[in-house]
Request: fold
Amino acid sequence: MSTYRIAPSILSADFARLGEEVRDVIDAGADWIHFDVMDNHYVPNLTFGPMVCQALRKHSRVPIDVHLMVEPVDALALAFCQAGADLVSFHPEASRHVDRTLQLIQAEGKQAGLVFNPATPLDVLDCVIERVDLVLIMSVNPGFGGQSFIDSALRKIERARRLIDATGRDIRLEVDGGIKVDNIRRVADAGADTFVAGSAIFGQPDYRTVISAMRAQLARD
Ligand code: DX5
Ligand code: ZN
Reply:
């Protein structure tokens, strides 16, 4: 299994000081910056667009992991590739032509991911897993930070891990929603290697303490 990555979600950061928040959380040990894009259409909330990503790019020396909660997908996926995203993930039900959207992201030299809501089966992976770079399992319904982890995600993570391992390819398995110090190890044990955490990190005064505590859980025998 490849090394673990912790991806703080800036959805829970102080939007009035986003550049500083990104620098602080990277200094505290973040591996990726998770960037939640909501359009008030696919999800009932509205966040930030490609211009904010472009502005943050120079504050981030780590990969920017864009999670698109938008419909339609293609134009924004392309705009985020051009705004400096390193990985761009989208929900398959929001794209009319999933394979085409994956190709569009990869043609820009970026990694492409598919995101699965709690009630969305992994079926589409049967057709496109050879093309994806990342599988993102939602452990909350998308739209808001600070929700509780939905336990049925664990079984889906286990299934996704088996599908990924069967390809022999280096595909990241990321989990998003309700991840805290006290459950990250269970999520890793189910097969995840990349962990999004918003409120657990930005809700605390010392980001390094939380990220180190998460790493300690991941390192435990
Ligand atoms: C929810 C977002 C998440 C969110 C997670 O739609 O995709 O990335 O920021 O927040 P927490 O970690 O607070 O559940
Ligand atoms: Zn997210």
